[in-house]
Amino acid sequence: DVRNADAAVRRTYALNLSKGRCRKADIYGSISRDVGRTFATASSFRRLVEPRDLEKVLVATVNSSNSLRYIQGMSPWCGMFLYEMPHHLAFECLRRFAGHLCPAYIRHGNPGAHRGVELLEECMAALTPEVLSVFRKTTAIEKPLVLFAFSPMLSFSSSIPPLNELRQLWDVMLSYGLHLNVIFVLAYIVLRTDELIEAQSLEHVQRIFDPRRPKALHARSVVHIAMELVPRIGDALYARLESHCRDASVS
Question: Is the pLDDT score of 218 beyond 50?
Answer without folding.
Answer: yes
